[in-house]
Automatic annotation (TrEMBL):
InterPro entries: Calcineurin-like_PHP, Metallo-depent_PP-like, STPP_CPPED1. It comes from the Bacteria. This is Metallophosphoesterase. SUPFAM superfamilies: Metallo-dependent phosphatases. Residues 1-26 are annotated as: Disordered. GO terms for molecular function: hydrolase activity. PANTHER family: BLL3016 PROTEIN, METALLOPHOSPHOESTERASE, CALCINEURIN SUPERFAMILY. Residues 76-267 form the Calcineurin-like phosphoesterase domain. Residues 1-11 have a biased composition (Basic and acidic residues).
Length: 333
């Protein structure tokens, strides 16, 4: 248990006939699991099958469903923000500090005080001490009791994450991983950005940590796993996967409900495999292209009036006794 610091089916018609993606799904199949740019995702259970409903964040039915769960007595409510890239300079967003400030203000205007806020990586763009200090100072403005982080690959440029851990790694294990419990949910924060060649990588020491961490938990314990790079093969060609994640996935199979939340891809994506649902978060900095829709995953310049539609925050509600979490993604206001 670690507190980093206290207080502090709709594929586009033009997809027909396009080639398979690298991980064996057609682009149309890929899109069946995805809600791009600012959708709200609400999970329901019907006949034992998890169904993801993806809708516009202004879809009142989806929003109301998530908020109804969040409003219940004894409900856990937390927030995920991701990929603030403090220090980025480029036409895709000329003021990432400003948009992250707007995201913080939106967190503070949710109408409830989140149990905690998780930043799922790429807090900074170039891992400088000044950028780490800036983003830490900014996050002290979040009205929550606890703030957690996991590192992105941009947070470990040139020093294998040492500057990141000096700022955010107090009380963590190994290269910065940890776990904690609240409201009957077990949370695991993983680091898969330090041994990068092409894909994310966890390593044997961290996988052994997960094995021991889960060993004593009953199988009906809800599990939430945070990482920066997706644990599933979203688009390996662009490094949007973790090469040894299946070893952790195997350890999670015995649990009745597992939710994996990641950043890195700067867009919403939901996929369910058996008992495990994966949700990629959007960004507060700049959009990246959809998988395979550009030569590389580089920052995308969009008209200024459309930038906020690509940025956002995520609130998550969980009521004890329920099987699934209710997830709501909101565009930056």
């Amino acid at each position: 248990m670690t507190d980093y610091y206290d207080r502090h089916d709709g594929a586009p018609a033009d997809d027909a006939g396009q080639p398979d993606t690298e991980h064996g799904m057609t682009r149309r199949q890929l899109m069946r699991h995805a809600g791009w740019f600012g959708g709200a995702v609400v999970l329901t259970v019907a006949s034992g099958e998890v169904i993801s409903h993806i809708a516009d964040s202004r879809d009142t039915n989806a929003g109301a469903a998530a908020e109804a769960v969040a409003a219940g007595s004894g409900t856990l409510r937390f927030v995920q923000v991701s990929d603030s890239h403090i220090g980025f300079q480029g036409p895709a967003n000329t003021d990432v500090a400003g948009s992250f400030t707007e995201a913080i203000n939106q967190v503070n205007s949710l109408g409830f005080r989140p149990e905690f806020v998780m930043h799922s990586g790429d807090l900074t763009h170039l891992s400088t001490a000044g950028q780490f200090d800036q983003v830490k100072q900014m996050m002290t403005g979040m009205q929550t009791d606890r703030v957690f982080t996991v590192p992105g690959e941009h947070d470990s440029i040139g020093d294998a994450g040492r500057a990141y851990r000096r700022t955010f790694g107090m009380g963590t294990l190994g290269d910065g991983w940890y776990s904690f419990d609240t409201h009957g949910v077990h949370f695991i924060a993983l680091v898969n950005t330090l041994s990068l060649e092409k894909l994310g990588h966890l390593g044997n020491a961290q996988i052994d940590f997960v094995r021991k961490d889960l060993a004593g938990l009953p199988s009906d314990t809800p599990i939430v796993v945070f990482s920066h790079i997706p644990l599933f093969a979203m688009y390996p060609k662009w490094g949007w996967s973790t090469d040894d994640a299946l070893k952790v996935i195997a350890l999670l199979r015995r649990f009745s409900s597992v939710t994996c939340l990641n950043g890195h891809v700067h867009q919403l994506f939901t996929k369910t495999e058996g008992n495990i649902t994966f949700h990629s978060a959007t960004t507060t900095a700049y959009p990246l292209p959809k998988p395979g829709r550009a030569p590389a995953p580089t920052p995308q310049v969009v008209p200024a009036r459309q930038l906020k539609d690509a940025l956002g925050i995520r609130s998550v509600g969980y009521r004890q006794g329920d099987r699934e979490l209710a997830i709501k993604d909101q565009r930056l206001a």
